[in-house]
């Protein structure tokens, strides 16, 4: 699917399979990326918030993290997570989920730095508006094989929303693997083309 993107005028030129799972998640899922999608939840005293993340192709395959504190640096140098952290910074990161912005260095370096600092997981904040969802990958198998913590990327809009909720001093996140769409009898699958729903679609699993 990713190979087609350079030849499309816009994301709307691609057929999209969107899924509603009312008993599983409040978010619309992508059928194509569903096996890599994770639910990210947090709450304050008034309401709950949910986001979707796409797991990187390195690190653990199954992710279940419950009520772990988060940390994000306010200074630009550490916001991108490209440099090794000092001992003082490690104390802020240890046993927490680290939020870092996309950009300035490769994703794998960011994960290695976070892991060495004792982070439980790392969430990449996508800073490119309107970009299609993608899964982070690497050809550096020598270094990716040492990764033991999960990493995932969230969309631009979800990144903004998560940062807004963080301003309310929401201190913990839950990150959990979402169940299969194919095995969910309540899943509602819609085929879209250029934003319009195509009716009478039948999904056949061979």
TrEMBL record:
Residues 80-162 form the PA domain. CDD domains: PA. The keyword Ubl conjugation does not apply. Gene3D superfamilies: 3.50.30.30. Signal peptide: none annotated. The keyword Glycoprotein applies. Keywords: Glycoprotein, Signal. This is PA domain-containing protein. It comes from Helicostylum pulchrum. The lineage of its organism: Eukaryota, Fungi, Fungi incertae sedis, Mucoromycota, Mucoromycotina.
């Amino acid at each position: 699917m990713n190979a087609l993107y350079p030849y499309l005028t816009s994301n709307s030129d691609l057929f999209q399979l969107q899924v509603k799972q009312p008993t599983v998640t409040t978010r619309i899922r992508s059928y194509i990326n569903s096996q890599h999608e994770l639910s990210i939840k947090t709450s304050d005293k008034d309401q709950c918030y949910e986001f979707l993340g796409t797991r990187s192709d390195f690190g653990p395959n199954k992710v279940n993290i419950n009520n772990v504190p988060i940390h994000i640096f306010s200074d630009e140098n550490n916001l991108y997570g490209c440099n090794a952290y000092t001992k003082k910074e490690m104390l802020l990161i240890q046993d927490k989920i680290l939020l870092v912005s996309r950009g300035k260095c490769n994703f794998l370096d960011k994960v290695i730095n976070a892991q060495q600092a004792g982070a439980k997981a790392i969430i990449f904040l996508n800073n490119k508006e309107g970009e299609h969802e993608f899964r982070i990958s690497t050809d550096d198998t020598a270094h990716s094989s040492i990764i033991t913590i999960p990493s995932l990327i969230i969309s631009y809009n979800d990144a903004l929303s998560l940062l807004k909720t963080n301003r309310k001093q929401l201190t913990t996140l839950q990150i959990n693997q979402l169940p299969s769409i194919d095995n969910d009898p309540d899943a509602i699958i819609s085929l879209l083309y250029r934003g319009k729903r195509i009716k009478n679609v039948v999904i056949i699993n061979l």
